[in-house]
Amino acid sequence: MELKLSGKTAIVTGGSAGIGLACAGALFREGVRVLIVGRNPQRLESAVRTIVDAGEDSGGQVYTVSADLTQAADIRRVETEALRVLSRIDILINCAGSARAGAFFELNDKDFLDAWELKLLGYIRMVRAVAPHMAARKDGRIVNIIGAAGRTPPSTFLAGSTTNAALINFTRGISKELARDNIRINAISPGSTATERATQLVHQTAAAKGMSFEEVMSETVAGIPVGRMADPSEIADLASFLVSDRAASITGSEILMDGGRTTGM
């Protein structure tokens, strides 16, 4: 399917690893000029090499900016750098976020606040920063990578699942206001995905449940009807579709990609 994204510009937060890296790479291969945002400069440079090496001669370009999205000043710096290197902002993919897994009574307030500050407020702040630029041009596309735990919260991932539930609410709520300026915003909620982050969560869950890593991993995969974790590229492909004009009538929606694990609405 021809997505006609060549020449567009994009910011991808959390773009140095996992789903964010896959999204940045997919856009690059479509000929998009991409600014990837992450906290670790070394990982960002490694991500650039990965994207360029896999991108062939797409016509895309990739830039980086090191920023901590828990800091409002860093959000402003991302905005400034995006306008400097990209000139305009057509696309935003929010993917920066982490939360510690663990037994509820072993988590403290900081575990919840850290998750909310980075992912919930980070996504909200990024939308607040870029949407006015999109509105001025009467065109914009935003995708929030959220997570299926916002709908089906495990008892060992409450800091993350409360963050995700709030972001689903935010995405739906802001969509009508943004639509007035031809800005579409949607959410993708992946289930278990084969990333470094997922491996870390399995280790933390195993510790909370008193199980081995292998036992938790087996239990996780067994609960997915398609019998496997998603590959990050699958989420990236859907994100690319959602920011294209092929999805011109889709906004305010959340699309689950959890291998059939969640049933019902």
Query: How would you name the oligomeric state of the polypeptide chains in this document?
Result: single chain
- Unreliable runs, pLDDT <50, ≥5 residues? none
Strand arrangement in the largest pleated sheet? 3-2-1-4-5-6-7
Rough outline: globular
- Average pLDDT figure: 95
Order of helices and strands: EHEHEHEHEHEHHHE
Approximately what portion of the residues adopt beta-strand conformation?
Answer: 5-15%
- C-alpha end-to-end distance: 29 Å
**Overall number of strands:** 7
Structural class by secondary-structure content? alpha/beta
Measured on Cα atoms, how large is the radius of gyration? 18 Å
Estimate percent helicity. Answer: 40-55%
Biggest beta-sheet profile: 7 strands, parallel
Number of helices: 8
General description of the model:
This protein is an alpha/beta fold and 265 residues long. It is 48% helix and 15% strand. It contains eight helices and seven strands; from the N terminus they run βαβαβαβαβαβαααβ. It has helices at 18-29, 41-55, 72-86, 109-137, 158-179, 196-209, 213-222, 232-242; strands at 9-13, 33-38, 61-66, 91-94, 140-145, 183-190, 254-257. It has a seven-stranded parallel beta sheet with strand order 3-2-1-4-5-6-7, with helices on both faces. α1 packs across α8 (232-242), α4 (109-137) runs parallel beside α5 and α6 packs across α7. The longest helix is centred in the middle third of the chain and has 29 residues, at 109-137. It is globular, with a radius of gyration of 18 Å. It starts with 8 loop residues before the first strand and ends in an 8-residue tail after the last strand.
